[in-house]
UniProtKB/TrEMBL annotation:
The entry's keywords: Glycoprotein, Golgi apparatus, Membrane, Signal-anchor, Transferase, Transmembrane, Transmembrane helix
Protein's GO biological process: glycolipid biosynthetic process
Cellular component annotations (GO), alphabetically ordered: Golgi membrane
Localization: Golgi apparatus membrane
Coiled-coil region(s): none
Keyword Methyltransferase attached: no
Family: Belongs to the galactose-3-O-sulfotransferase family.
Membrane-spanning ranges: 20-39
Main location: Golgi
Name assigned to this protein: Galactose-3-O-sulfotransferase 4
Length: 110
């Protein structure tokens, strides 16, 4: 017995039965997505670390803070998001920005 064609399946089950079955499977799928936390399999090598207790001595910076940063904005690479993050960071920390007088830096004038 070969695979059932869509027309034969529709004749066997009927449109109402197929609709009910589709609704049941979609409900199960959505429930598993919403409540999927307990059903997810964890990889044995991937363990989440618990945050350790903070030490009493102050944490030393691992590298000196940067004083100058150059960011070149490019097209279609997520640079607008990075630019807004840099602006927000600079505004919070009182940094100054060097922006072009016109829209683009050094674009050839034809």
């Amino acid at each position: 017995m070969g695979p059932l064609s869509p027309a034969r399946t529709l004749r066997l089950w009927g449109p109402r039965s197929l609709g009910v079955a589709l609704g049941v499977f979609m409900t199960i799928g959505f429930a598993l997505q919403l409540l999927g936390g307990p059903f997810q399999r964890r990889l044995p090598g991937l363990q989440l670390r618990q945050p350790s207790a903070p030490s009493l001595r102050p944490a030393l910076p691992s590298c000196p803070p940067r004083q100058r940063l150059v960011f070149l904005k490019t097209h279609k690479s997520g640079s607008s998001s990075v630019l807004s993050l840099l602006h927000r960071y600079g505004d919070q920390h009182g940094l100054r920005f060097a922006l072009p007088a016109r829209y683009q830096f050094g674009y050839p004038k034809l």
